[in-house]
């Protein structure tokens, strides 16, 4: 997939949309960490980099350097375990 430009553009676009949503949530409640879980987290930096870049562009009130974007450790089980609680 490293050479697939269309796939990279899709990850860039989707990461931007997730980053926009994360920025809105950050402005509303001010989290210190945003955790990306489930199967989508396997994309790693391919998805996390555009999320982080969008956060840096969109957040202007909070100390944006303190907001960490990380992948969760539960993998594909995250949704099931979250709904069980």
Describe the protein in words.
With 85 residues, this protein is mainly alpha-helical. The protein has one domain (5-84): ATPase, nucleotide binding domain (Nucleotidyltransferase, domain 5). It is built from three helices and two strands; from the N terminus they run H-E-H-E-H. The protein has helices at 5-29, 45-58, 78-84, and strands spanning 33-36, 68-71. The chain has a two-stranded parallel sheet. Helix 2 links the parallel strand 1 (33-36) and strand 2. Helix 1 packs across helix 2 (45-58). The radius of gyration is 14 Å and the shape is flat. The relative contact order is 0.20. The model has no long low-confidence stretch (mean pLDDT 86).
Q: What is the 3D form?
A: flat
Strand order of the largest sheet: 1-2
Question: Strand percentage, roughly?
Answer: 5-15%
The parts where pLDDT drops under 50 for at least 5 residues are none
The number of helical segments is 3
Structural class: mainly alpha
Radius of gyration: 14 Å
For this structure, the quaternary state is single chain
Order of helices and strands: HEHEH
Query: What's the CATH architecture?
Result: 2-Layer Sandwich
In CATH, the topology is named: Nucleotidyltransferase, domain 5
The CATH homologous superfamily is named: ATPase, nucleotide binding domain
Number of domains as seen in the coordinates = 1
Biggest sheet details: 2 strands, parallel
CATH class: Alpha Beta
Instruction: Report the end-to-end length measured between terminal Cα atoms.
Output: 36 Å
Question: What's the pLDDT, averaged over the residues?
Answer: 86
* Helicity range: 40-55%
């Amino acid at each position: 997939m490293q050479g697939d430009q269309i796939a990279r553009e899709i990850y860039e676009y989707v990461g931007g949309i997730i980053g926009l949503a994360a920025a809105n949530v950050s402005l509303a409640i001010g989290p210190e960490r945003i955790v990306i879980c489930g199967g989508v987290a396997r994309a790693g930096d391919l998805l996390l980099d555009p999320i982080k870049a969008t956060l840096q562009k969109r957040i202007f009130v909070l100390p944006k350097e303190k907001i960490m974007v990380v992948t969760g450790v539960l993998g594909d089980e995250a949704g099931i375990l979250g709904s069980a609680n």
